Amino acid sequence: MVLVGAAVGVVLALVAVLIPWLPPADSTQAVKVDHVYWFVTIICVVIFALVAGVSLYAVWKFRAAPDDTDDGAPIHGHTGLEVVWTAIPAVLVTAITVYSGVVLTQLEDIPKDHRVVEVTGQQFTWSFHYPGANVTSGQLALPVDEPVELKLTAKDVIHSFWVPEWRMKKDAVPGIETDLVITPTKEGTFTLVCTELCGLGHALMRAQALVLSNAGFQKWLGEQKAKAAQAGSAAGKTLFTQQCGTCHTLADAGTNGAVGPDLDKVLAGKKADFIHESIVNPNAEIAAGYQPNVMPGNFGDVLTDQQLSSLVDYLLKAVGTS
Predict the structure, then answer these.
(1) pTM above 0.85?
(2) Which of 124, 176, 198, 214 could form a disulfide with 205 if both were Cys (CB 3.0 to 4.6 A apart)?
(3) What is the pLDDT of residues 94-103, one digit of tens each?
(4) What distance lies between CA 17 and its chain's CA centroid?
(5) Number of independent structural domains in the chain
(6) Residue 168 belongs to domain spanning
């Protein structure tokens, strides 16, 4: 019986070890998750080998002869054996519970010094905002060997964040914010997938997750800022032409309005705070020769924060003070 159980155990162990069931573990958290997985798997392999060994031995040892039609001998049972096969599973289940709980607590621990990325799921795409750099991208980029807290939310339905090589998975839920800590340990390009059925385009809800060196990450942030500034400048110019061009002169925009002051002159050398204040509170400082209450004072309510920012950035660049 022992030999049969050992043979079954060896076969199962070879199946478990030789077949690559899991993708590479490329984060600190993935290693801990895999330890729990293999801890449970080894216990299951041992128990299955023991049960299979006993079953195969019993089938062979106590099989009835072809001409034996008698009933088996009545057996009352074995109290000691029953206690053992009840106690051992109880101990193993307790061990799995305790070990899993310890690892879960470690995975949810957020280091004091860490980077934050705001992740938003929306049918059927992901977006990533870096508050410290004020950058938003369709790519997730993380520095290698640095803990990052991902703050997850959704705009429409429940989505679920998962990069297989990082193992960690969590739902992005409308109306609440969930968090996930990742410390990637390998540079490269990974695939982020949504694992919660979220509509017809669910299977296509993918995004790139880049893990870069610290220098590479800083370079990536710089490139994203440049792209955002370029896009913001174009949007700001369009917004100026539509909203301000009939009243103001600005050489860069090709406008020659005379209702308000010439912005090439009054904004030269001014800072962003002054331009922003002049838009949302035009009566705060009146240019010589012009009257108050001519320019609408509700631009702060009509324009979004992003529109205001793009307009201010454009004016700074247009008058050469950026």
Answers:
(1) no
(2) 124
(3) 999 999 999 9
(4) 30
(5) 3
(6) 115-212
